[in-house]
Every structure is written in structure tokens, then in C-alpha cells.
Amino acid sequence: SRPQKVCLCPFLPVHPLKVSTSLYIIQHPAEGSRVLRTVPLLAACLPPDKCKILVGRRFNEDRYPELATVCRNPNTLILYPGAEATNLEEVAVTSSSPSVMIIIDGTWSQAKDIFYKNSLFRLPKQVQLKPSISSQYVIRTQPTNTCLSTLECAAVALSIMEKNKSIQETILHPLQALCSFQLQHGAQIHHSKEHLLKNGLYDKPMPKNKRKLRRMELLVNNVKI
């Protein structure tokens, strides 16, 4: 649905990737109005039955019985970092049966709100990715240097679960093309907030909210948040 000269179709896989892992993308409603989204690119890389998108803020068993069943499945994982999360690589080593992975799509504050205010998402095993790569989604500002877009999270996670590194490369290809097109047409590279703060380049007023100010101090001092 883009103009032909910036069409991303040539950068998508010719055929949807064959994967055994199913993704459930829990998308905050505000993401739908963003122009440069990564989830449509992700969905275009996978078979429809392997990438289901649910839009909303609150998810209960009465309104989402299928999701409730998925959350109770012992093979379901939810990708959300934190003290209770296990590194996905460790889980993938012991996993032999097809898995389901839930990924929350939204800003970090929106994702946090969805995760903590929906009890269903506390049922699956919580996993996280090792912060080993920097985001290639350079046309959006990330909180830290190791924060990834939804598409990047899915690409890394699927490559781990499927034990196939080429999956990550294939899914990242259209994202790289998107960023390249945007930069060619006037977009600027966005460094992470962490990078800007540490290098004295943050040009916005500092927040008055003590909690937000504290988070920014932690970023500068290399404290994991």
C-alpha cells in the first residue's frame, strides 16, 4: 500500500516463511494510527495462521476465549523482559514441540500497561532476549541502545525457536529497506534516548515527573531498567 517507487514488496520473501512457532501480536490501539509500523511487514513475511494480531488494551477470558486457551497452553511463551523472565535461548534448548509466542506491540509504557493489567499474560512462561544487537529501526527513537522494534523481536525470537538464523535475516530485510527509503526521502537517523543523554545531545526539556526523571538518570548511569 505504498507508492511504487518506495514499494517494499521486492524485499519480502517470495513465499511466506515456513515456521512451526505461532505468534500472537497483542497490539495497543494507538499503533494502528502510526504511519511507519513494523507489524504489517512481519505479517507479510509469515503465513496468516502463524501471525495473529489482536488489538486492544484489556483482554479477558469472556471476550477472548481463544487467547485464554493459548495463555494456558504449557508451550506458550510471552516475550517481556524483567526479573522473572528466562533467556529465550535457554528455553529453546529444551523445547521440542511447536510453541506459541505472545509479543506486545506498543510503546514501552503501553506494553507495560498491557502486561501488568491483564492477568492472562501472567500465565505463560515469561522470556526475554539477550541484549546482543542494536535496533536497525533507526527512524524511530528507542529508549536504550538495545531496545528492539516488534518486528526485530519477532525475527530474533523466531530464529532462536526455529534454530534457523536465516529467518532473522529474511524478516529484517524489509525493515532495512523501509529505513533506507525513509532516509533517502528526508528522514533523519534517530539515536536512542540513552545515547543522546550520555553524549549531551538530548535537546528536550527534562521531565518534571520524578519517576520519569529517575529513569533517565538510570539510563545515563548504565543501570538496567
Automatic annotation (TrEMBL):
Catalytic activity: a uridine in tRNA + S-adenosyl-L-methionine = a 3-[(3S)-3-amino-3-carboxypropyl]uridine in tRNA + S-methyl-5'-thioadenosine + H(+)
Record domain DTW: where: 1-187
Keywords for the protein's UniProt record, in alphabetical order: S-adenosyl-L-methionine, Transferase, tRNA processing
GO MF term (any one): tRNA-uridine aminocarboxypropyltransferase activity
InterPro entries registered for this protein in UniProt: DTW (IPR005636), DTWD2/TAPT (IPR039262)
Catalytic EC class: transferase
Any one biological process term the GO annotation gives: tRNA processing
The keyword Cell inner membrane belongs to this UniProt entry's keyword annotation: no
The enzyme's E.C. designation: 2.5.1.25
Family membership: Belongs to the TDD superfamily. DTWD2 family.
Protein name: tRNA-uridine aminocarboxypropyltransferase
